[in-house]
Amino acid sequence: MDTLPDFSGGAAFVQDRYLPIAEASIPITDWGFLRSDATYDVVTVWEGAFFRLDAHLERFFASCARLRLDPGLSPEGVTAVLEQCVRLSGLRHSYVEMIATRGQPRWGSRDPREAVNRFYAFAVPYVWIANAEQRERGLHLVVSGVQRIPAGSVDPRVKNYHWNDLTMGLLGALDAGGETVVLTDGAGHVVEGPGFNVFCVAEDGTLVTPAHGMLEGITRRTVIEMARSLGLPLAERALPAGELRGAREVFLSTSGGGVLPVTRIDGQPVADGAVGPVTRRLVDLYWAWHADPRLSRPVDYGPAAP
User: Angle formed by the axes of helices 277-289 and 218-230, to 10°?
Assistant: First the structure.
């Protein structure tokens, strides 16, 4: 008697098949692996519903267009695959990724136009980039001396796997006793960290977030919309590292946890070292917005047939 696949740890879509996440793999010759020639996006499922799926699909297809990648599916087709991955896993809190890679051209060719592009997807348990203690007392952030890849080299608006600068910055931050890192541009302005955007409450009470040199995160967009709904003054502009260190409050925005407070930068407290009132207000509102039917799409957990 055949044993049914165990999708409880997550499900993946690879080469037109659904597999348990532990069995998923890609061809070693795919340029997505060999050259980081790929784009991706991550949407979350919370309490059994996708959050801002339309926005993530819009960004994914825009990224594909900029990189001249064809995922081979329409937005509706991608949605069906993502939902099936979640359905198979049964996860009600999930981290769901869609990926388009260059694939591989014929042997000996270096012409990317000859490559057969590939689409992959998977759903795994929800990913937090900060644990419960860190979310309560605030993260310890380090401003790295590693410069983020210039936008003229790799378009940061396209979600990509060019993470070596972020990885080396993070290693340096961890070695220095920090918990995460933010990188700067060539002019000393903070831009982004590994998987998150940055916000601060400036001395005059304005909520500030970098305007250039970073991925325009969907959670960043959500925070901007929440701030406007609350009537908070907001500025999208260059953010010098020194201003970040001297801010009243600092927080991160990410699909891996929403709004995450920062209470120490480079070993020194942010203001009084406690999570600030604006941050706490936005944390609460972020999770409350998950119940808004305009922003959520319930997953159909009906029969899951591969």
Answer: 110
